[in-house]
Amino acid sequence: MDTDIETGSFLLGSGQCGTAFGRFLVDLAGLLTVHIVVNLSNYFEFSMAQKDKLNRAEYPGQLMIDYLQERGVITPTDISPLLKALAFLKMDGVQRQVLSFFHTHGLEKDETQGRLVVLQKFLKAVYERLYSAVHPIPYIRDGLYSVNEVFVECGIEVIKSTTNGRSQWSSGESQSREHTGLNSYQDLFNPDVICSNRIIIEGDPGYGKSTLTLQAAYDWCQKNHSSPLANIEVFILLPLRLLKGITSIYKAIKLFILPRDCNLTENDIKEILIHCNSLLIILDGFDEYPHGNSDLESDFTEIIKGNMFINHRVVLCTRSGCIPKSMDPRTIRVRLMGFNEYARDNYLRLALGESPERIRQIKQNLDQNPIMRDLCQVPFFFVIFAHVAHESNDIYKCDSVTSFFKYIMQCFYCHMLRKGEESGTASSYISERNIALHKLVFDGLAGDAQIILWDKRNFCQKVGSNCLDELLRIGIIVEEKFLVIDATVSEVVQEKTFVRFCHKLFAEWYAAHYLFKIANKAFAVGLKSVLKKCDSVDLQFIFRFACGLKPTVTKRIVKYLKELPGGNTLATLCILEKTGSANDILDIVREMCLKQIDFEGYESNLLQRSKIQLLSIASKNQIKIAKLCLVDCFQFADVMDGPLCLLNGLHLPKLDTLMNLVVCDNGDFRNWEGDIYTYMAKAAHWNILTILGSLQPKSYNNKELLAMLRSENRLIEWDNFLGDWLLNVETGKWDDENGREMTNTEYSALAMQYDCSD
Questions:
Q1: Residue 639 has what pLDDT?
Q2: Name one Pfam family in it (predicted).
Q3: What are the tens digits of pLDDT across the range 384-404?
């Protein structure tokens, strides 16, 4: 090959493309024979579906051009990736011809630059309107916030590894796990921190995924110099819930982001995105995407798989556990951890201007109410709690999720009364008595494909205009206007208004009204078939609210839940909702604590938080917890503050009545044993610690700690593939059941088993 062709740095200036580049593409398509197309598709690792399309295409060269542009292999300013590929394939003559075409057609002014400026202008105007009108809680309409006034950083975990198909997470808070987490949400957009161009942000409802995306939009619009987004040319923030029947990202941007007076066409948008130097796409709400994991072929599935915009960063936001079945294997998954104590303090100072003394009082009141304390780990709940507590202390009297939410709803209605918009009491309002509303929402949530967005006209016809107006005034339901395609009228584009609940939990509240009405019927005809429609984990609040709103139906709902695998935890929480008093479920909790209680790494935060509530009740009431087993989820023990910290960011409070802890993990845990051993030595009743699988230190020489373990008669067991071993608290060595000390050879074999050096 001629040595004067420098494939690694062949670029044109930004003014040397435009229509000339189009002529270059025409010539290039004519040059690409079937043989060249096949070789290039193998070199760039095209999917089987793409290769099949190329094989069947009437003009494979033209289709190959489209694929190469989507991947960023050829742009008006850079064709070096294509030249490198041809060099690797030893197609010297083809490479020279491509280079000649590029020289010939690369001398005219770039026409896309002006369109880029227009797109940036419209995007910034749209995003500014969104991030400048944030409602921390629904009824705050007269005092809007900008997102930067209320956004508070929360912990972000990064996926660590996969063991037997189970994801393990690390927040970076514990250096003992030898993994660095993210220090800020800005790290998500920093290629020096995360090198992959595909990122999935997971979080349970209310954990602030959408707020984070608005903060990112704010950083881009304001060109925040401390943010990696400052130098991004184009920032696309697209809510997936709107995209029913839409397969083109360019059409989606035209219809759902840009205003009607923007004269950019879909082709203009395509040219800009393909040719821009830097692009960030955020796809918000995969769990609300109408096509989800269906087989529909679209730009969005190709983007997620890594087949489009391969050289640009794409961030996908979704509910925990709801991830695409097909995605780029290089995708990095992160998860939002919710509000810890530091984040809660920050919000109280930032949004409400609370004094240090007032913050201390709020925290003290929360600590005395385990139900409220647990709920307030969820940012959405804490934000509502903080604003309501700012006005009244009555909220601290809530002793169940139902009573908390009922109080919140009363506050919403009372706020509307104070504004003079209505008369009456909260209990008299239409939405609480509207059976059509309750059934409509229940059917939407409990269906195979959840419906969380309704055409306003249809919604109004079913629930009544008075009910809809009431919900809109309070702010529980919000309107969204956007363009849709009417396929029945030659694909005419029309503007339509849709409605949705400001948060899924409000929808679950009204759905619970329908469930308790069905369960309250004399013979509960069809109750089981109705209950089967509800995912007991994803929609657990429907069950809990129903029992709290109508205690007489609790027995029937609990009976059903206990028949489900792992349903005892939710059944117990439903009983707690029924009575509002932990005293009434102590016998059930006592029975539960006689058996082993498992926390597994694949479980949702929602399920584990439910178990934590019950363990807290047990410990507070001096009920002994026989055995707690942490499988692929333990992170470290906080010796100072008392909690056991899990990999998903949840904290098990200090359990004074715990008797036996089992930690099951296959990692190298030689650096955290001091924390867990010290924690055990200080526990009131904890007698046995069992380590399953994970590598322990060869010996332990902390004489003070060994003395504490010895004086408290603590047993530390280590079960591994060589057998069962006990820590000798006299020598700090591991002994087998016969009292024989583990040899250096045996320990080296264990270290090799865990791929660790001795």
A1: 67
A2: NACHT
A3: 888 888 777 788 778 788 988
> Which carries the bigger pLDDT value, residue 282 or residue 141?
282
Q: What angle do CA 753, 755, 758 make, to 5 degrees?
A: 85
Backbone φ, ψ for residue 53 (5° rounding): -65, -40
Largest interatomic CA distance in the chain: 88
Separation of alpha carbons 569 and 180, rounded Å: 34
Pair 526, 560: CB distance under 8 Å: no
Neighbouring-strand partners of residue 551? none
Q: Which fold has domain 115-336?
A: Rossmann fold (3.40.50)
For residue 340, give Cα distances in angstroms to 156, 182, 320, 556.
11, 15, 18, 37
Domain boundaries, the chain: 7-105, 115-336, 400-405+422-577, 578-753
**Closest residue by Cα to residue 566 from 595, 545, 546:** 595
The answer to whether the beta carbons of residues 600 and 631 sit under 8 Å apart is yes
Q: Is 730 helix (H, G, I), strand (E, B) or coil?
A: coil
Within 10 A of 101 (CB to CB), how many other CB atoms are there? Answer: 19
Per-residue pLDDT tens over the stretch 491-529: 556 778 889 888 888 999 999 999 998 888 756 667 888
DSSP state of 182: B
pLDDT > 90: what percent of the chain? 25
> How far is 543 from 521, CA to CA, in rounded Å?
16
Secondary structure of residue 162 in the 3-state scheme: strand
pLDDT in the model for residue 5? 43
Compute how many other C-beta atoms are within 10 angstroms of the C-beta atom of residue 605. 24
For residue 667, what pLDDT band results from cuts at 50, 70 and 90? low
Token pair listed for 469: 């107006």
Residue 146: is it exposed, middle or buried by C-beta count within 10 angstroms (0-12/13-18/19+)? Answer: middle
Q: Is the CB of residue 268 less than 8 Å from the CB of residue 120?
A: no
How many angstroms separate the CA atoms of 206 and 505, rounded? Answer: 9
Task: Identify the CA nearest to 524 among candidates 506, 562, 550.
Answer: 550
Angle between helices 112-131 and 266-275 (to 10 degrees): 100
Residue 631 phi/psi, 5-degree rounding, is -105, 115
Q: How far apart are CA 637 and CA 653, in angstroms?
A: 10
Find out whether 619 and 656 touch, Cβ atoms under 8 Å. yes
237 bridge partner residues: 282
User: Side by side, which strands form the sheet with 660-668?
Assistant: 596-600, 627-631, 660-668, 688-695, 715-720, 723-727, 734-735
Amino acid at the residue 354: E
DSSP state of 653: P
* Residue scoring higher pLDDT (56 or 757): 56
* The two structure tokens encoding residue 341: 């104590």
- Measured distance CA(686)–CA(603) in Å, rounded: 25
In order of 66, 151, 278, 439, 494, the CA distances from 317 in angstroms are 27, 17, 20, 29, 28
Taking the C-alpha atoms of residue 656 and residue 616, their distance in angstroms, rounded to an integer, is 10
Alpha helices in 71-191 (DSSP H): 80-88, 92-105, 112-131, 147-150
DSSP for 568-604?
HHHHHHHHHHHHS-GGGGHHHHHHHHTSEEEEETTS-
Report the candidate in 150, 76, 203, 30 with the shortest Cα–Cα distance to residue 649.
203
Q: For 739, left (φ over 0), alpha (ψ -120 to 50), or beta?
A: left
What SS3 class is residue 247? Answer: coil
Cα-based angle 385, 387, 393 (whole degrees, multiple of 5)? 70
Q: Quick one: which of 447, 708, 401 has its CA closest to 574?
A: 401
Q: In angstroms, what is the C-alpha Rg of the chain?
A: 30
The two structure tokens encoding residue 758: 């001795």
